[in-house]
Write a structure and sequence with these properties.
Blueprint (H helix, E strand, L loop, with lengths): L4 H10 L1 E4 L5 H17 L14 H4 L2 H4 L5 E5 L18 E6 L1 H4 L1 H7 L2 H9 L5 E9 L9 E4 L1 H4 L2 E2 L3 E7 L10 E3 L10 E5 L5 E5 L11 E3 L6 E5 L4 E3 L10 E8 L3 E2 L17
Antiparallel strand pairs: 1-12, 2-3, 3-4, 4-14, 5-13, 6-15, 7-12, 7-14, 8-11, 8-13, 9-10
Length: 279
């Protein structure tokens, strides 16, 4: 697949692009099966790391901050009882796996480094691509948490901002089970905040514009399994809670141009022993 002029113009105008039937459905199933194996082999004892975009500073911990070059597991906020025990099985309680699946697991590596993805990011202007981070997102039935309106650049800032997100639907994503929503053209508003590491340890949000998002302009992106949604790094987007009986599995991959200066105070960092790789 090569992007045509209309698709490129749509991406420039809206800040996102929906490409149906991009990923082979069998490849999607292999990714789901591998994620299930990783969760099966994960021992949650002693690990209570919760992912939340709403209170990420409060919930940040060393387990989370050290995950840039590892495979780690994060729970849903509503997965635990008041005594700290899980409501249900760990398989039904994990929010996501991140953030170096594409480099450390052969199944995810194969999915992430296809000629089709390389061509796509090239068409979008990423001349010297490096695969920055990956996440497997479960959006669990009935407890799948909300991801509040945000820009990826808040968390993965670079200058110039030559970075894109690729969101692969591994199951049908609908309004009922927590599909993405985006503000068309919202990427032209500029970066509103940054989530950074502090010199003292831990993290903070640096806010440049505290005006609320124009959420009345949000558009649902309901898509079928195998679709990829391309997200500009400045695009405001969110996903709502999943209160349905169906999961909404997705895989995300962020790609950065090697010519961009990736900020040293971004929360996601790698050790010197594990540098970023391209395709």
């Amino acid at each position: 697949m090569t992007l045509n002029p209309d698709q490129l113009a749509s991406y420039v105008r809206d800040g996102f692009l929906v490409l149906e039937n991009f990923a082979d459905k069998q490849a999607c199933d292999r990714l789901r099966a591998r994620a299930a194996e990783l969760v099966r082999d994960f021992d949650p004892r002693g690990v209570v790391s919760i992912f939340s975009t709403g209170e990420q500073t409060r919930t940040s911990d060393e387990y989370f901050l050290g995950s840039g070059d590892k495979i780690r597991f994060f729970f849903e906020e509503r997965a635990f009882l008041t005594d700290g025990m899980l409501h249900q099985s760990k398989e039904q309680s994990i929010n996501k796996i991140g953030h170096a699946l594409h480099d450390l697991d052969p199944v995810f590596d194969k999915f992430s480094r296809t000629p089709e993805i390389e061509r796509l990011v090239s068409d979008l202007g990423i001349a010297d691509p490096l695969l920055l981070q990956s996440m497997y997102i479960f959006k669990q039935p009935r407890i799948g948490g909300e991801v509040t309106c945000h820009q990826d650049a808040t968390f993965l800032y670079a200058e110039p901002l030559r970075m894109i997100g690729l969101w692969f639907a591994l199951e049908d994503a609908t309004i009922d089970n927590g599909c993405l929503w985006a503000i068309p053209g919202g990427h032209k508003l500029g970066v509103k905040s940054r989530f950074v590491r502090t010199e003292e340890g831990g993290t903070r949000f640096d806010v440049f514009d505290d005006a609320p998002w124009p959420e009345e302009e949000l558009q649902p992106l309901e898509v079928k399994k195998g679709t990829v949604i391309v997200l500009h790094g400045l695009l405001p987007h969110l996903s709502r809670e999943n209160r349905s009986p169906r999961s909404r599995h997705a895989y995300t991959l962020h790609v950065i141009d090697a010519s961009a200066l990736y900020s040293k105070d971004n929360w996601l960092q790698r050790s010197a022993e594990m540098s970023l790789r391209g395709f």
